[in-house]
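Suppose a colleague, Dr. K., hands you the sequence of a protein chain of 155 amino acids and asks what its three-dimensional shape might be. Before reaching for any lab equipment, you can write down a predicted structure in token form. Begin with the sequence itself:
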Amino acid sequence: MHFKYILRFWENVANLGPDECWLWKACTDAHGRGIMTITVAGKAYNIKAPRFAFFESTGRWPSGLILHSCDTPLCCNPAHLREGSQLENMRDAIERGRTKVGSQHGQAKLTEADIPVVRSLAAEGWSQEAIARRFGVSRGPIKAILGGWTWKHVK
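The predicted structure, expressed as tokens, is then:
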């Protein structure tokens, strides 16, 4: 890696100590994640700052995602970064409460108050299709609720 990129990278990182988040201070993408542009053979590439930090600390580019133990997308502290998969990233998000569930989800058509009614109607013998029609949804969400795959947070 060309020295100018390494120098530019560290000029844009606020190093606050070994245990603290080292925050990226320069450009961010549409999701608020730090990015830097490097040019290789005349072609410009946007590299996520934590990915570059991982490369700088290990000497290799990660084959998967970069996961943050601190849950801070702008953090570039190598002690807070690890390589992982999309599945591990989703597990982390769920365990740490970073996912939207139920009516918090932007596409939810049902609410937490609807779920006990759905379950009650099914217990009374209503078909999934009839319940779906009552709530103006397709059969899929009703099946997922009754199967215990979704809306698990509603007792």
